[in-house]
Amino acid sequence: MNTTQNAAIHSNAVITAIGSYVPERILTNADLEKLVETSDEWIMQRTGIKERHIAADNQFTSDLCFAAIRNMMERYDVSVTDVDYIIVATSTPDAVFPSVASQVQSHFGITSAGAADIQAACAGFAAAIQLANGLLLSRAHRKILVIGAETLSKITDYTDRTTCILFGDGAGAFLIEASEDGHGDVAAVYNKTDGTRGHLLYRSSLASAIGEHDIHTNGYIVQNGREVYRWAVSHVAEGVQQLLERSGHSAADIDWFIPHSANMRIIESLCERTGFLLSQTLSSINLYGNTSAASIPLAIDEAVKAGTVKPGQLMLLYGFGGGLTQAGVILRWSL
After folding, report:
1. Three-point CA angle 170, 90, 279, nearest 5°
2. Bridge partners of residue 314, in order along the sequence
3. Is the whole model's pTM more than 0.85, yes or no?
4. CATH number, residue 240
5. Are residues 303 and 218 in the same domain?
6. Which of 165, 226, 254, 327 is the most buried (most CB within 10 A)?
7. In what order do the strands lie in the sheet with 114-118?
8. Same domain, 203 and 227
9. How many domains are there within the chain?
C-alpha cells in the first residue's frame, strides 16, 4: 500500500471552461427488466440509478471527448488550438494506442501539444486535475485540456445483473490554464492506492495478472460489489477526512462535495461518515449511472448549467475505484 502524505499545495491552475456530452440512446431500468432478472424498484433501491446513456455501436470514447469539447467551446467561446497538453482519463480507450488524447489533438488541429491517456479508473478525473496542476506549476505548459470519458457499455456483460445495471457512457471536459497572478483554484490534493485489493474490481481481459482469483477472459468488468462497497464506505471515507484535515478544512467549509457517482447508497454512506449533507452533494448517478472517470465532471456540469454552482465556492472532488485507487482535490470554483 502506498500512501501519499499530501496537504495544502501551491497552484496556478484556473478552470476557464467546462463542457460535457452523453450519447443519445437511453437505457432505462424498464429496458433492463427485459434483459435480466431485475426491476426498477430493485435497481433504484440498491443504486439510485433510473437510467443511463449508451454509446452507439460506431461511437467510441474519442467521439464522446470530441462532443464534450465542442460543447465547451460553444458555451464559453473558447479555442483549443493553442492548448499545449491534453490529458484524457479513461478505462475504455478506442485502442491501446494511439491514445484518445492524441486523437483529440488530431481532431481539433492542435499543432503543438503533449498528449497522454491516464488509467486510474473512477479516480481518473481527479488524478488528471492533479497532473494538470503540476504541469502548469512547472511553467512548461500554459493551457491544458482535461477530459474524463468512458464507453463502459462496451465492456459490460449484459447477462450479469449485478454489473449491467450500473454502468453508462459519457464525457466531461475542463479547460485549465495558468493564472496571470500566480494564484490558482487547486487548494489541496490527496492520493492513496491499495493494489492488494485490485481483484475486487477489474477488467477481465488481463485477469491472469490478478493472481489466484477467479479467471475470466471475456474482456468485461468483473466486480465483487459487496466488498467494493465495504471498502468504499470505510477506506474512502477515511481518505476524504484526511484530505479535509490536511487542507485545514472541515465539511462545513465545503460548499459542494462531488464524490465519484458509483452508487447512491455509497454516496449516502460517505456523507454519513464524513459529515457532508446530501443537500451539499453533487451526483450524476440518477440519470447517467456509473460513468467512472466521467462521473465527476458530468455532475459538476449539470450543476453549472442549472446555476447551482457559483464562482468562489469551495468544492471537494473525490474519485475512487479500480486499482483500488483514490484521488481527491479541493478547489475554488472560478467560473
Report:
1. 55
2. 332
3. yes
4. 3.40.47.10
5. yes
6. 327
7. 13-21, 169-178, 143-151, 85-89, 114-118
8. yes
9. 2
Q: Which domain holds residue 244?
A: 186-332
Beta strand pairing status for 85-89 and 25-28? unpaired
As a whole number of angstroms, the distance between CA 333 and CA 235 comes to 27
Could you give the CA distance from residue 50 to residue 48 in angstroms, rounded to a whole number?
A: 7
d(CA 79, CA 100): 19
Count the Cβ atoms, other than its own, within 10 Å of residue 277.
10
The pLDDT tens digits along the chain (335 residues) read: 444 455 568 999 999 999 999 999 999 999 999 999 999 999 999 999 999 999 999 999 999 999 999 999 999 999 999 999 999 999 999 999 999 999 999 999 999 999 999 999 999 999 999 999 999 999 999 999 999 999 999 999 999 999 999 999 999 999 999 998 989 999 999 999 999 999 899 887 654 555 555 555 578 898 999 999 999 999 999 999 999 998 999 999 999 999 999 999 999 999 999 999 999 999 999 999 999 999 999 999 999 999 999 999 999 999 999 999 999 999 999 99
User: Could you list the active site residues?
Assistant: 122, 260, 290
The three cell numbers of residue 303 are 450543476
